[in-house]
Amino acid sequence: MNVIDEVPVGPDARVYAEGWQSWSPTTWYGAGDAAHRPAEHWQHLMRFRPGRDLPDTGVQAEGLLVVDPGDGAPQRGYGVRDARTAVPTLRAEWRGDRIVVSADDDADLVVESGPEAFGDRFGAGMGARTGAADPGVWCSWYHYFEQVTSADILENLAAIERERLPVDVVQIDDGWSLGTGEWTRPNPAFGSLPDAVAAIRDSGRRAGIWLAPFTVGSRSSVATEHPDWLVGPAGHNWGDDLVGLDLTHPGVRDYLHDVFGGLRDLGIDYAKLDFLYGGAVPGRRFDESATPVQAYRSGLALIREVLGDDAFLLGCGAPILPSVGLVDAMRVSPDTFHEGGEDGSQGLRGRMSLEARTWQHGRLWMNDPDCMVARPAFALRDEWADVVLAAPGIRGFSDRIADLDAHGRDLVDRLLNGARP
What we know:
Elements: E1 2-8, E2 14-17, E3 27-30, H1 41-47, E4 59-62, E5 64-68, E6 76-80, E7 89-95, E8 98-103, E9 109-112, H2 115-125, E10 136-139, H3 141-144, H4 150-162, E11 169-172, H5 193-202, E12 206-211, E13 215-217, H6 221-225, E14 230-237, E15 240-245, H7 250-266, E16 268-273, H8 292-307, E17 312-315, E18 329-331, H9 351-356, E19 366-368, H10 381-390, E20 395-397, H11 406-416
Parallel strand pairs: 10-11, 10-20, 11-12, 12-16, 16-17, 17-18, 18-19
Antiparallel strand pairs: 1-8, 2-3, 2-5, 4-7, 5-6, 6-9, 7-8, 13-15, 14-15
Helix pairs in contact: 4-5, 7-8, 10-11
């Protein structure tokens, strides 16, 4: 890496380091703050940038790094000019009364002020999709997880209708199919996906669905039947090692066209696309001239083409800067909690990055702060509600509506009606 700047700073100096993808730690760091590090290799693959080592000292950013000198001098932001082909890695290190900034040897950067100025310039240059009204969303995930059924969807749809909740989208999350790499095989335990989608649409709402189209399990039918479609390791989940798909391979592209064409034909026009980082993992691809970023964007562009320009695409676990212009919204933090954390024991995992990335809303896309969880069994519901209500973007909640008490219902009403603290 090359040193590109040395900034005189005061004791209150801070550095903003943008992470690689939705779940990557993103925040402002002071001189004494320890940089976030993965404890395991699979965590690096799933939360940081695969193929890029982290420095022993200082902080690392992907595509955007901002120095606030802390002495009244203007912020200095170092941001990528364009992210259609590549995203440079940047680093900052405190050395006495200076912060030394370095970047990849071939980094093409623009120096400007803070993240807001970067967002205005970069979003416009990448054709950011902004301006849509923030939708109200009910999501199945944080109550039902992978055990959701069509009956659960219909029960909550009926409650939304009965209680006249201003919900625009009913999103069916993980559990409707047999899983990553098995998208063409519905889960018999779920019941009828077509019937659930038809009921949602008949209610006048958009039917949303979750899937992880660029990442497959190593034991899935896609991986075992088509080893030539695979690129490289992408972490571990669902009891299986994950592998990224080669989005330049004709077979993969035909497969994705069929999957999303089938969903489109059901009437689905809202898609939460998760684990998208798998499309940009390093490795050999069918198109040897394509960079990982180019391959990733080609896959997103294909989904956009199949579902149509009017479809709403929500990225999650997605490379941040390369997604601009192709998605309507972006999850800007990790999941609030995982299975087993319904009592609040896992804390609020997404708060740090969510608050740091507030500036992205309306500049790069619509932010997704993740779902409010308002039922009384979630011990942190009021603390999390304060965070979600203060955040711009999608207004989503994820409870079995019948489980909401009066206070939980009040929180949901405030969320859906656009209340802010």
